[in-house]
Amino acid sequence: RLLSKRKVQELVGEIDPNERLEGAVEDMLLEIADEFIESVTQAACRLAKHRKGDRLEVRDVQLHLER
C-alpha cells in the first residue's frame, strides 16, 4: 500500500479532529487510493510510450489528470 491507515487518520483529522473512521471505511479508502494511483500511473505510462519517451515524466501524469 502506498498510504497507511495512520496517514488516512491524519487526513481525516485535518478535516475534522473529532471524526473517527471505522476500520472497514479506512480499508475501503486505502483500496480506492491504491486503485486511483495504479490507474493514473498506467495511463501516464501509456502517454509516455505514445510520445516515445523512455521514462515517465511529471507532464505525463499532469496530462492524464487534466483530462
UniProtKB/TrEMBL annotation:
GO molecular function, one term: DNA binding
Keyword DNA repair found: no
Main location: nucleus
SUPFAM superfamilies registered for this protein in UniProt: Histone-fold (SSF47113)
Lyase recorded as keyword: no
Pfam families xref list: TFIID_20kDa (PF03847)
UniProt GO cellular component terms: SAGA complex; transcription factor TFIID complex
PANTHER family (UniProt xref): TRANSCRIPTION INITIATION FACTOR TFIID SUBUNIT 12 (PTHR12264:SF21)
Descriptive protein name: TBP-associated factor 12
